[in-house]
């Protein structure tokens, strides 16, 4: 198939962001939709977990790590940096890594 | 549908001292930022994709609220007096802590809401925030020259209409109650709700005319 399945409605902005990331990485040629379906299947442990966007996120992180394009450690470090940046960002202003006091 | 969602829980962050991202927001941001840095994704391409799908958000619950206010003067009064309480009558909103304030457009006054930069944007009510809303120039320009910003969205108001700009805070989120469009006297509440766009509830747009509604 050449396109991903139609997305269900998004329940929150981060879900739309996750969907866009996966489609964008596919469009960049990093994986085929067949490979994506395999990654989703593996992350769901054979359908044990529902295929929601939390699963999409886990699957894409796993797929990228498996190809050596990023690592769990790098992502964890980046999350911590954003958490620090958010805490240091006045309400209503864009949260960017430039605001990370630990950088 | 989204009311009991696992999403951002905390609405009590103090806007004087900082912002907060939910665990899922942090996770997506971290991934995106690493991928952008490595050149695997282009932020502009992501925004374009999201714009394509931004209508695919759960029901724009706010549209139901607006339509009810148009047909039921009692509800309208309660909505303007206490937005959160009136919305609960329709099972809209529902997450604790936040307080929705509804501001009403009139021929004399048009309202425009800014600030959707963090979890304060009331997406269960309004749907996904528009991508352009994230841009710092929009926010500052909306305050300085709201009429010019509105014109860029194709919303041209009479010179005699004042424009008030509302900046959400950690405690207060705003929704605009637009004016009911002319020529809608015969429409029922559900058809009226179809006229209410997200942009009309933010104040960057006006409700659709009945002949602008595309039935899917």
From TrEMBL, chain A:
Domain Nitrile hydratase beta subunit-like N-terminal: 5-86
InterPro entries per the UniProt record, alphabetical: CN_hydtase_beta-like_N, CN_hydtase_beta_C, Elect_transpt_acc-like_dom_sf, Nitrile_Hydratase_acc_put
UniProt-recorded name of the protein: Nitrile hydratase beta subunit-like N-terminal domain-containing protein
Native organism: Methylobacterium crusticola
Lineage: Bacteria, Pseudomonadati, Pseudomonadota, Alphaproteobacteria, Hyphomicrobiales
Automatic annotation (TrEMBL), chain B:
Skewed-composition ranges (Basic and acidic residues): 1-19
Alphabetized SUPFAM superfamilies for the sequence: Nitrile hydratase alpha chain
UniProt KW Amino-acid biosynthesis keyword: no
Family annotation (Gene3D superfamilies): Nitrile hydratase alpha /Thiocyanate hydrolase gamma
Nitrile hydratase alpha/Thiocyanate hydrolase gamma domain boundaries: 24-204
Superkingdom as given in the UniProt entry: Bacteria
Reactions this protein catalyses: an aliphatic primary amide = an aliphatic nitrile + H2O
InterPro entries: CN_Hdrase_a/SCN_Hdrase_g_sf (IPR036648), CN_Hdrtase_a/SCN_Hdrlase_g (IPR004232), CN_Hdrtase_asu/SCN_Hdrlase_gsu (IPR023900), Nitrile_hydratase_asu (IPR018141)
Matching Pfam families: NHase_alpha (PF02979)
Region annotated Disordered, chain positions: 1-22
NCBIfam families: nitrile_alph
Record's protein name: nitrile hydratase
Lineage: Bacteria, Pseudomonadati, Pseudomonadota, Alphaproteobacteria, Hyphomicrobiales
């Amino acid at each position: 198939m050449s396109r991903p399945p139609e997305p269900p409605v998004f329940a929150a902005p981060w879900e739309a962001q996750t969907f866009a990331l996966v489609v964008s990485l596919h469009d960049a040629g990093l994986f085929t939709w067949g490979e994506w379906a395999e990654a989703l299947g593996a992350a769901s442990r054979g359908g044990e977990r529902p295929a929601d966007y939390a699963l999409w996120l886990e699957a894409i992180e796993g797929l990228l790590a498996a190809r050596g394009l990023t690592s769990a450690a790098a992502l964890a470090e980046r999350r911590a940096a954003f958490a620090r940046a958010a805490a240091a960002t006045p309400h209503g202003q864009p949260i960017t890594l430039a605001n990370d006091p630990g950088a | 549908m989204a009311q009991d969602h696992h999403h951002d829980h905390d609405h009590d962050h103090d806007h004087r001292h900082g912002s907060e991202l939910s665990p899922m927001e942090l996770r997506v941001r971290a991934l995106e930022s690493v991928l952008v840095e490595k050149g695997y994704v282009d932020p502009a391409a992501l925004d374009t994709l999201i714009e394509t799908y931004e209508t695919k958000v759960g029901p724009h619950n706010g549209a139901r609220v607006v339509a009810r206010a148009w047909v039921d003067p009692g509800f309208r009064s309660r909505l303007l007096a206490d937005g959160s309480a009136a919305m609960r009558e329709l099972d809209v909103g529902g997450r604790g802590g936040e307080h929705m304030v509804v501001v009403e457009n009139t021929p004399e006054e048009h309202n425009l809401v800014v600030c959707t930069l963090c979890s304060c944007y009331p997406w269960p009510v309004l749907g996904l925030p528009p991508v352009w809303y994230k841009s710092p120039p929009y926010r500052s320009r909306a305050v300085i020259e709201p009429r010019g910003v509105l014109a860029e969205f194709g919303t041209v108001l009479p010179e005699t209409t004042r424009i008030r700009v509302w900046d959400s805070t950690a405690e207060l989120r705003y929704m605009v109650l637009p004016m009911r469009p002319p020529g809608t006297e015969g429409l029922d509440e559900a058809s009226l709700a179809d006229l209410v766009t997200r942009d009309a509830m933010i104040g960057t747009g006006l409700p659709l005319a009945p002949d602008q509604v595309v039935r899917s």
